[in-house]
UniProtKB/TrEMBL annotation:
InterPro entries documented for this protein: TfuA_core
Protein name: TfuA protein
Database matches in Pfam families: TfuA
Organism: Niveispirillum lacus
TfuA-like core domain ranges (all copies): 50-168
């Protein structure tokens, strides 16, 4: 492989950990225009795990379609990558992992399911809140382990979902559930004690699965893409692409 894979990664997985799975060109969370710029480096593939939204324009669907039209496979998982992969699967973007599967089959719909707040790149993007998908998985595991009843599991999910993604953390969830009195205090305490060993990180697991899939595809020589569309250079596309590349595309 002459050119490396480009991976957009942030709070989901430390680059040091990711690098032990796949040797790649790791870049910060993707924003609008980043995939378009990445195409100019002619990578073997582009993988989207983390991405910006809300205060920074999110990666545009059209730039992902452009990358695939240029013969560059684009894969996604875990966070922004899972969202875009579910939206573009019918066009040839490959989604990986349980979170992608849940978006693809409609079990998940809201963007806030994967959203978190995090610290700066200089500190390694430390997470300052907990992703709803991780909370759902953890509560499910706690139910399976006999820590929570089905009713308590469901109520804790509801409490978490009602919070802004910026405020989601286990301390806040358990405190609010305890104050409202709808969850058995003994179960709350049992869950609190179990949490340090039982807390699941579905986003991290899916990111590792994606990197492993890429590594295996590279090793087996099966990395490729067959775009299921004809890319159209619309007026809007030209308006967005030219400022990014400063050349016609």
């Amino acid at each position: 492989m002459n050119n490396p894979v480009i991976v957009f990664l942030g709070p989901t997985l430390p680059v040091a950990t990711a690098s032990r799975v796949l040797n790649a060109d790791y870049r910060p969370p993707v924003a609008q225009g980043d995939v378009l710029r990445a195409v100019m480096d002619r990578p073997a593939a582009i993988a989207i795990i983390d991405g910006y939204f809300e205060n920074v324009p999110a990666v545009w669907h059209k730039e992902i379609l452009f990358a695939m039209s240029m013969g560059i496979p684009v894969l996604g998982a875990a966070s922004m990558g899972a969202l875009r992969a579910a939206e573009l699967a019918t066009f040839g973007m490959e989604g990986v992992g349980a979170i992608f599967d849940a978006y693809a089959d409609g079990r998940l719909e809201d963007d806030d399911e994967v959203a978190v707040t995090h610290g700066p790149a200089e500190l390694g993007y430390p997470c300052l809140s907990e992703a709803m998908v991780n909370i759902r998985r953890t509560l499910s595991d706690a139910f399976a382990a006999g820590i929570l009843s089905i009713s308590s599991r469901r109520r804790l999910e509801e409490v978490a979902k009602d919070l802004s993604y910026r405020e989601r953390n286990y301390g806040r969830i358990l405190r609010e559930a305890g104050e409202e009195g709808e969850v058995d205090p003994a179960e709350i305490e049992a869950f609190r004690e179990w949490l340090p060993v039982g807390r699941a990180d579905q986003k991290r697991e899916d990111a590792v699965t994606l990197l492993t899939r890429l590594r295996d595809k590279i090793t087996s020589g099966t990395l490729g893409v067959r775009p299921l569309y004809a890319f159209e250079h619309t007026t809007m596309w030209e308006q967005v692409a030219r400022p990014v590349l400063r050349t016609p595309v």
